[in-house]
Amino acid sequence: MPLNRFPFLPRLALAAVALASLAACASFSGIEPVAQPRDAASLGLSFADPVKSGAEANIAADWWLGFGDGQLNQLIDQALATSPNLRLAQARLARAQAGADLVDSADKPRLDAAVDITHQRYTENGLYPAPLAGSIRDAGTVQLNGSWELDFFGKNRAALDAALGSVQAAQADAQAARILLASQVARSYFQLMRIQEQLGVAQRTLAQRSETLDLVRDRVNAGLDTRLELRQSEGGLPEARQQIEALQEQSALARHALSALVGQPHVADALVPPALSTVKIAAPITSSTQIPADLLGRRADIAAARWRVEAATRDTASAKAQFYPNINLIGFVGLSSIGLGQLANAGSLQWGVGPALRLPIFDAGRLRANLRGKTADLDAAVESYNASVLDAVRDVADQLASSQSIARQQAEQQQAESAAEGAYEIAVQRYRAGLGTYLNVLTAETNVLQQRRQRVDLAARALDTQVALIRALGGGYAPTAPASLAAAPAAAPKSVAVN
């Protein structure tokens, strides 16, 4: 197509050069971000070969299946299907996607249709001569208007990248809500299991203290004990009943919390949790000292924070691009006439096409203020990312330390329980042989019951810490990191040694 069909193009190019030379009148110099993402050295992280360290880096998205409990699987599936919090996160994602579509439309041609019909009196002292001046006429216009903003300086592209970054952050937030909900359901379920087993131990404690009281009464009647021992034994019963009542209250509250998490009232009221010993523990980490750093990068909250940094970076670039000329191609074609009877005539045709250029020269600091705000948002996003990484490192280290400590405590508790049960067996044998009293048997059983309570607590803590560790390591989430932060410590596919 010959250029003489568009004689304005050379003038447009010349005007663009002239306007660009005036850009210094509205300058963004001196406005730069100051926050920087934390690197591995500043976090005190060291890297090791995950094969040599023995770290297992794979956590399935449906990690709860590894516990081998059908009731737990059903509860989590119901929660993920009906939770209002997940639906809220999905609504925010849909809102972010709609915002990205809106920003994307700014970079595309636009075509509008307009129909105007006016019944008016024309002034006698204006531009229009007689006989139009002073007359009352009908006027009509039917027209198509088109425009296309030429994004020479990348303002629209940067705005679209920022919107897409917000979409990615919203997607990560939705996954974070999913992982958090699943972990809360699992932890509440294991808490209910702990309460139920502790309730069984408390009921046996009540029965044991009742038997002890009967024996002490008999000994008092026989003159072998005093009223001091009797009053002490009587005080043990209300204490045991109070413990049972407290555990029943905890059970009711735990069931209410579990039903609320699942999103179905009373769903947990009739739930009969199995014994803690029937639940499998599949540890995601086999090393005692190494944490796989790529799992830190799979945390959805860190992924969301990284994408918010990316979005804020693009927002800042878009704000800088507003200092440059804004160039549009505009055009129109249609019919216009005074007198509606002439509107459809060929002579009523009108059209036009040409460029429109705008350059901010003096705007009382509006553009600089906008850029300072966007730069502050970027600094805030970077510091939020840093805080998320620090919290992730601490969270994983805490859960791993607790998991290792609980394992050692369980080993010691098993030995203590074995010793208590051995003493109880000896007391039973002595009683059967007539060498001891039944009161000795009940006293020995007291130590056994105490060890059982500790065993239940430690078993429940082991499961709870396991869920917390899985969540801390990302819960199976595998994000795509933005290129600008691909080298961040939380995204490095290596292993982190926790000191």
From TrEMBL:
Name of the molecule in the record: RND transporter
Xref: InterPro entries: MdtP/NodT-like, OMP_efflux
Organism: Rhodoferax koreensis
Compartment(s) where it occurs, according to its Swiss-Prot or TrEMBL record: Cell membrane; Membrane
Any GO MF annotation of the entry: efflux transmembrane transporter activity
Bilayer topology: Lipid-anchor
Pfam families: OEP
Signal peptide interval: 1-26
Domain of life where this protein originates: Bacteria
GO cellular component entries: plasma membrane
Keyword annotations of the record: Coiled coil, Lipoprotein, Membrane, Palmitate, Signal, Transmembrane, Transmembrane beta strand
Coiled-coil annotated residue ranges, if any: 230-257
Family label: Belongs to the outer membrane factor (OMF) (TC 1.B.17) family.
NCBIfam families the UniProt entry points to: outer_NodT
